[in-house]
Structures are given as structure tokens and as C-alpha cells.
Amino acid sequence: MDAPSFKEVVTLLLKVIWEFIHAGFRLIVPYPKKNISGEIVLVTGSAHGIGRELALSFARYGATLVLWDVNKDGNEATADEVRKQGGTAHAYLCDVSNTDDVKRVAERVRRDVGDVTILVNNAGILHGLDLLQLTDQQIRKTIEINTMAHFWTVREFLPKMLEFDHGHIVTISSMSGFYGASYLVDYSTSKYAVRGFTEALAEEIRRLGKTQIKTTTVFPMFVDTGLVTGIDQRFEKQLTPQQVAKATVSGVLRNRLHVFVPRKCDFTARLKMFLPTKVINLLIDFGNSKIQLQEKKSK
């Protein structure tokens, strides 16, 4: 390949400068919210916690909800809540870690409701044990649900998004996808992975020239979902599922690539790239942000 010409270099620099100016402008004046009324939104892990609040939040904007969970009663309860507030919801029993189950239920959704246009990969589990306490089965289950499930759901619904150049893929990651944490080795691994998954997927979509398929990755701090007990944070209160859902839906409506909850975590995530490891450790210790070792459940 030939070396870049002077004209090409200057053109690149001008484009870079313009993008910096544009990004600064959008910090002050965000993009207007898009209309998602009538969109078909699929939320995994919708029986409780963040998933339930996401379903309720999307429904308030007129979207049709498709709810997937292994907890049938909880999932039906979420669907009922959506309907009570005047929305439309379809609840399905689905194990997102099982490829056959995902394929079977996805086909039912296409037949019963239509093509999913906004996919929210939210389902997740967390054990809160140190690495040597985790069983082989627990480690595999964490990766299967928190990471591998994203492959199976996206492969089912991305083709139609590509066909029509229309859609949105939402990934609920975690600040543990930026900072490894003790007693979260399996969980952090899974959340780092889905962060990379979504970034690579977005680049593939861009290379295909599909400009109207968006991705949003969400990075919340510790959330009070009942997955763990004994969360310590010196300067932050534990987030509620409602706070995470509200920030997520707002980010989707404005096509934000990344959503940090709280927003200042965006700064700390970027700061990590420039600070020495020992400085980062000092700041982590000063903030005392951690979970306590969870009790290992008997078989």
C-alpha cells in the first residue's frame, strides 16, 4: 500500500478536529431523543431487578415488550405490570444459555409478535465467591449466561436488523467490566467479555455500512438487585434498578455508545488508562468500594 499523501494527512487531521468539536458540542447539546413507539423490544432477565425496570421504562415510550426469563411467575408479573400501565407485553420462558431454547423461543417471537428491533441483553448471575471456592459448574454458568447468551440472541435477531438497516443492541455490562474486583473473578471476566463483544460487533456493523443499527453498552456500579449482600462503598450509595433502567433507556433514546451509572464513572474508567497500577489500588482502597465474600450455598 502506498504511503499516505500530504493531502490525505491534512484531510484526516481536519476530520479529527471536527469530530472533537462535534463531541464537545454534544456534551452541551445532546442528540434529540428518537421515537421508539411501536418498536419491538426484547429484554432478557426481565423477571426482576434491572430487567423488570427496563421493561416498564421502555413500555412508557410506547414500545411492545418481549420478556424472556427462566422465572415464569416473575416474568408474568413483569408483563402484568407493563399491561397495567397501558403497555403491551409478551412473556416467554427461555434459558438464554441454551442455544436450542434461544432458537426455539426466538422463532415463536417472530411468529407471535414480529421482528425484534431493540435487543436488550440483561440476564446475568453473580456468585460473589473467591476463585478457589467457585465450582466448575458455577464458573461455566456465569460465562454461559453473562457472556455466551449474547452470541445466541444477537445471531437470532441481527439478520433482520441488517436487512432493514434498523435496530439497536443493548448490552448491560458493569463497572466490573473495567475494574477487576475480588470475589468477582468469574463475573468480571464475563463483563469484560461482553464489553469487547459489543465493541467488536459495532465495528463489524460499521464495516457493513449499516449506519442505522446502534449499540449501547451500560456500565453500572453496584446495584441493589439482591444478587449479593454486604456491598461497601465509601462515597456512593448503592444504585437502584430504577436508576440503571432510567439511564439505560435515556442512552438508547439518544443512541449513546456507552452509558455509565453514575455518569462520573465515565471519567474514572478513562483515568485508569493513564494511572500507574499502584495509584489505582490506592484510590480503590481509599474509596473502599467492594463486596464482601458471599456464603457458599450448600449443594
UniProtKB/TrEMBL annotation:
Domain Ketoreductase, chain residue ranges per copy: 39-225
Its membrane topology: Multi-pass membrane protein
Compartment list: Membrane
Any GO MF annotation of the entry: all-trans-retinol dehydrogenase (NADP+) activity
Pfam families, per the entry: adh_short (PF00106)
Signal peptide: none
Keywords: Lipid metabolism, Membrane, NADP, Oxidoreductase, Transmembrane, Transmembrane helix
Gene Ontology cellular component annotations, sorted alphabetically: lipid droplet; membrane
Domain of life: Eukaryota
Bilayer-crossing regions: none
Protein family (similarity comment): Belongs to the short-chain dehydrogenases/reductases (SDR) family.
Function: Catalyzes the reduction of all-trans-retinal to all-trans-retinol in the presence of NADPH.
Protein name: Short-chain dehydrogenase/reductase 3
Name of the encoding gene: LOC106179587
